[in-house]
Amino acid sequence: MWNRTSGGLALTFHLAGINNQNFLMRDDQTGSYWQQITGAAVSGPLAGRHLVLVSSDELSFGLWSAEEPGGTILEGVAKYTSKYAKKDWEKEIAKEPIVLSFADPARKLEPRTVMLGIRADGASRAYRYDEVLKEKLVLDHVGSEAVLLVVGPDGQSVRAFQDRIPGSASAAPAAVAAGAAGQDNLPGGDVSSPFYRTFDDAQAHPTDAAWLKQSASAPVMMDEATTSAWNFEGCAITGKMAGRCLEPVDVLKDYWFDWRNYNPKTTVYARPAEATPATTAKPGQPGHS
Asked: Residues 193, 225: contact at Cβ < 8 Å?
């Protein structure tokens, strides 16, 4: 999601073309063309400019409704209904040929493998969506930035946060110091500590609206250093850190071929159990690939 204002000018966009299944937008005000995935103007009077990213989540409707009971929904414009994508759009687009592949059988990456991409500290890293759903909680690094990815109580939605318990400005990444238990220097300084999944996924009922409403704010993880419990919004609801929240990290859900095309230097996360002997991560430490 992008802020459509550039240089103080509010732009109106429309679909102008498709570039390897990533669409090009053209603004009505200057006639410049913009790339969907990067938010960059690739030609026209505004070429070289970049739109500003607006933080957003991709959640299941059930979980979003539970978190935002007063939220509003964007409805379609009746006279344009026939031009909207059909419900089976994703299945149909998956049949379309692609120019680029970047298939990597060794890492179980097909062109249309769904990835979760993160850019931080000048680096980019991709995570297989299905593997994140299996792990439930991933501690890792993107460049030098320690991050954690956590699955929501619906078993489908994923959010990412800086892997630091907030305190002072001199943050120390939680994923690096597995032996941080026993540190008790709150609230003046940050504490390094692993996070652990605490939500009972075996008892989940993601299609039950009443259950989701009750579980939306429930704790899904705990940090070892302070034993505070944190919910899916990244906020501590019990313990010494109650009331504080982790810093969100933007995540892009994308096909592997598209992410790799626009992030040529990307690395790919590997689950510790799948890593080679030379790169096998210890429990609580990130996997590298």
From this structure: yes
